[in-house]
User: Fold this.
Amino acid sequence: MRVLVAGASGVVGHPLVGALRARGHQVSALVRDPSRAPDADEALLADALDRESLLPAVSAARPDVVVHQMTALRLLRDDPAGAFERTARLRTEGTALLVEAARAAGARRLVAQSIAFAAAPAGDPVLDEDAPLYVDAPDPGWAATVRAVAELERQVSSAADLSGLVLRYGTLYGPGTAYARTGGTGQRVLAGKLPLPEGGSGVTSFLHVEDAVTAAVAAVESEATGVLHITDDEPAPAIDWLPHYARVLGAPAPRTVPAAMAPRLLGWFTTHQLTAARGASNDRARTTLGWKPLRPSWRDGLGTR
Assistant:
């Protein structure tokens, strides 16, 4: 098939281009910065928030399938507020423009990335795709992020004339991610600056980058629609994964702090992740998409690459 990958320079998008080409697809890589373009059959330059540049670029590719992997999270270290603001725009305005462009270009299918850790902290420790999203989170920044995610999922699922599938990735680890040794989280743990709130009961569902890629390839080649959690098989409370991660990195053991102090020390989101977040079940992806993770447990690689 002819496949256009929007966000082809990202942590998932870059290896995805190669994986799709290895499967025999003709792949167009849509990027803003030509110096970051992967080795593709065709590189297309466009700003996904600029209709006048995006629509002609997508039309030129004549894709059968469009893959939405766009975020601005690589800007997190230098401009966290800007990274989240642009990512929210890419998930709302950018998705709307990409849907319009895909339809105008005659594409039949749209696959888009979302996140599997946006559920409201209610109910079982591990939730399926039907659980409500945390759109009313008390932290304004996280509430805005989740609302943008919800809008992306709504647009993809309801796009007329397009077969839409949303992949909710778990917390990514592996090369280029925050959990790589050189990533932001890795560096915090190495410096002993990520303490564990008492109890550590927040659950994280991890996903290796390689498994995100295999899921996206399966999604391109599938007819499945809807929303699917793409995570490993072992949702883990913070009290399990954080000390293990520190040991693998060769970092100091995380010190334990009173839960009441955590928001001041860690900020709202990290406190939420470590104390209240729910994990995500991948059962539906296994049955609907016929996908399973090559790394079924975060214990097989978290902190090693």
Notes: The first strand starts at residue 2 and ends at 6. Residues 218 and 289 are 7 Å apart (CA to CA).
